[in-house]
Amino acid sequence: MPISRRSLLGAAGASAALAPVTAQAQAKAQTKAKAAAPASSDKVGFAVVGLGKLSLGQIIPGLKVARNARLAAVVSGHPDKARRVAAENGLPADAVYGYDDYDRIAKDPRIQVVYIVLPNSMHADHTIRAFKAGKHVLCEKPMATTIADAEAMIAAAKASDRQLMIAYRCHYEPQNLGVMRRLRAGTLGKPRLVNTTMGRQADPADPSDAWRLDGPMSGGGALADMGVYGVNAARYLLNEEPVAVRAWGHTDPADPRFRTTPDLIDWQFRFPSGALANGSTSFNYAPTMAFEVICEKGRLIADPGAFYGGNRLTVVQGGQAQPPTSPPENDQFAREMDWMADVVRGKAPMVSTGEEGLQDMRLMKAILDSLAQDGATVKTDWGYRRAVDPAVVVDVA
Ligand code: NAD
Of the listed 97, 102, 229, 308, which one is catalytic? Predict the structure, then answer.
């Protein structure tokens, strides 16, 4: 059943592309959210694990404007930072945990959901520990660095009878949802080709990029970090699963950034309907998070298509480009966390399942396998079908 999120959308502030929300937008959003939100005690408590760029820039601010979710605890390896962040957000001193005493969250009834926002190689361990502590888990993308870890996370969720959601924010973002709905309605005819470009320049001097350039910690460099958006988008735009993939790439052996991860990868997916998808990713090209869908009778160009805010859609029909549109101001992170809160309270279906994350892990492995074989075709029809289409259940506005 669709859940209305109109008041949330009205309350939330859009951010600049891949940057924190502006102070003004955030303050406006917080004022409106206070008026619209239920009492804090009625909200689902989230523990945020890892206090890096995403947590500080997007997730904790998102929890301030969320309608149904609230910050209940922080978990960090840096006690000073953790205490400061807790104090700034009105948390008591006993809501601060370190990685070593993290398992004590089992005895903390304030925490219902644990949000894992750590380097990718640390997702599985902290997810499984949270399930053992009896908590639900929202885990950042990519779900893990290996298929075995992803499978272990799904098994741990089942064993503890708790919910596992992968943080695919675009499943809750109005522009992406609008494009999905337009494609499902078929007004532009059948979708024939999807193009996705997801990448940027990585800076090895930035600690947040250093682990992303490390093979074991990231699980695949640009592909794992940015390319995963294109892999996931091709699937949710077409609402079907690829049956085959082939991939080419280029990594400059003289570039010290790419000692353990590949750089530029360009892949093609073949879908059962006959549609094709081209995807590319790189940590050595100009920043882009864009996609285009070419249908029989028109084109949808989303550029940007997956930024935190300021996304823009151009529809081309009958040879005419319509004026670009942008979705209303919204906080995708708040929308995503509110959805998780509603799943936990039995008010919404799980959309971004662990199996969705595993499917992307398996497809990224297939891309890397094809890359290693100079573009050989790798079959990918192992029978996965998504349980719930975001376009059907998640409100656009
Ligand atoms: P970050 O490097 O800024 O933060 C990572 C945090 O983990 C830091 O606080 C760091 O201190 C901590 N940490 C603990 N052990 C560490 C270790 N051994 N090495 C490095 N850091 C360690 O990263 P981030 O940008 O916040 O990304 C965190 C997660 O969020 C990643 O999984 C990433 O893919 C995901 N992410 C998602 C989005 C999105 O739009 N959904 C955007 C950015 C990042």
Answer: 229
Q: Is residue 285 annotated as a catalytic residue, yes or no? A: no
Task: Give how far the C-alpha of residue 304 lies from the chain's centroid of Cα atoms, to the nearest Å.
Answer: 15
pLDDT tens string 152-210: 999 999 999 999 999 999 999 999 999 999 999 999 999 999 999 999 999 999 999 99
Take atom 10 of ligand 1 and give the residue whose Cα is closest.
Answer: 52
Quick check: CB of 116 below 6 Å from ligand 1? no
Ligand 1 pocket check for 120: Cβ under 6 Å: yes
Beta carbon of 289 within 6 Å of any ligand 1 atom: no
Dist. CA 183 → ligand 1 center (Å): 34
Whole-angstrom distance, CA of residue 310 vs CA of residue 305 = 9
Tell me the pTM. Answer: 0.91
Containing 192, the helix (H) or strand (E) segment is strand 191-201
- φ and ψ at 262, to 5 degrees? -75, 155
Minimal-distance CA residue to ligand 1 atom 12: 50
Does the pLDDT of residue 27 top 80, yes or no? Answer: no
The whole-angstrom separation of Cα 387 and Cα 174 is 20
Question: Is 107 an annotated catalytic residue?
Answer: no
Q: Please name the residues in contact with 262: beta carbons below 8 A apart, sequence gap of 6 or more.
A: 220, 221, 222, 223, 249, 251, 368, 371
Strand order in the sheet with 313-317: 320-321, 313-317, 298-302, 284-295, 191-201, 276-282, 264-270, 244-250, 378-379
Give the model's pLDDT for residue 397.
75
Task: Report d(CA 262, CA 385) in Å as an integer.
Answer: 29
| Nearest residue to 5 via CA among 332, 386, 350, 345 | 332
Ligand 1 centre and the CA of 118: distance in Å? 4
What domains does the chain contain, in order, with CATH numbers?
37-169 (3.40.50.720), 174-327+354-393 (3.30.360.10)
What's the CA-to-centroid distance between 103 and ligand 1, angstroms?
A: 20
Indicate if ligand 1 lies below 6 Å from the C-beta of 282.
no
Render pLDDT for 173-189 as a digit per residue (tens, 0 to 9). Answer: 999 999 999 999 999 99
Does 28 score more than 60 pLDDT? no
Annotated active-site residue in 43, 64, 135, 141: 141
Q: In this structure, what DSSP letter does residue 169 have?
A: G
